Amino acid sequence: MKKVVVGLSGGVDSSVAAYLLKEKGYEVIGVTMQVWQDDKASNSKAIEDAQNVAKALSIPHFVVDFRKVFREKVINYFVDEYMHARTPNPCIVCNRFIKWEALLDYADKIGAEYIATGHYAKIVQLENGRYSLLQSEGNAKDQTYALYRLTQEQLARTIMPVGEYTKEQIRYIANKAGIPVANKADSQEICFIPDDDYAKYIEEYTGNTFEKGNFVDKDGNILGKHNGIIHYTIGQRKGLNLAMGRPVFVTDIKVLENEVVIGEAEDVFSDTLEARDVNYMSIADLKEPIKATAKIRYSHKPVACTVTKLDEDTIKVVFDEPVRAITKGQAVVLYDNNYVLLGGTIV
After folding, report:
1. Per-residue pLDDT reduced to its tens digit, 57-90
2. Could you say which of 94, 134, 173, 342 is catalytic?
3. Residue 270: strand pairing partners
4. pLDDT, tens digit, for every residue of 96-110?
5. What are the CB-based long-range contacts (under 8 Å, 24+) for 198-201?
6. Is 94 one of the catalytic residues?
7. How far apart are the first and last CA of the chain?
8. Is 91 marked active-site?
């Protein structure tokens, strides 16, 4: 019987992943990764929910303390990115360095061949021998965008049972199986910032207050005062408190000058980006320009583009039509027929 470690978050998706694997005959071990830096009731509730699921499924359950590595790899990255006027994606970093690396380390310690998660994606081995992610059934919940940084070694040892189903089907399975969190609401916010006020979190975490500065137009004319650069991201319209008589948007953030550049709707569109820290998935390398579709944020509808390799760690993406709010620090993920080709961090 093959042994698999399932990352049990206390939510319905990972719970059903554990149930489906047990039904297939795997020896399932549930592991809840403790990453929260405090002891708030919501954190205890997640562990309690995971314990109740494990009990209902009659599988062993362990809580493993990953707080130190989570702080080093995810929280410090998140804070540093905002302080440098980039918009981070902590889930992508967490998936790569915490959920997978840490879970696989734990699996190795207990002699488990595989790990499993409740992500909406499918893992496929292609004819060229490489592993890739295929978008899940019912693309509304597809999570391949946040998983593009997984390595070939990680994919080879991962099972994602939920990718075969829609969210509605997963809840149906959970109810039918008597899983206690079958109707638990999905988490929407960043897990370590439950009130979603990331600017306040960054100030408390760093002990810094971020000075107010000037809103300026593209010619440098002062339009008003901003509340500190960590409060803003490219494409933002709400919360600017500028009486311009028309909708205006953040088009750039200048750290050294402590300025937030404001422009019109058309100023937020661009047809070109560059990305670094490239991770190849369906293909091992990019020898020549290729056509693909690209997502520049989780909820973005894929847009046709051409991808060119500039150097060993940099790609250039030229879109067939301009896209809105290309944002430094976010990921661009390239697809070919719903398979993840490669991706990188927008610079």
Report:
1. 999 999 998 899 899 999 999 999 998 889 999 9
2. 94
3. 323
4. 888 898 899 999 999
5. 198/78, 198/82, 198/230, 199/82, 199/227, 199/228, 199/230, 199/231
6. yes
7. 46
8. no
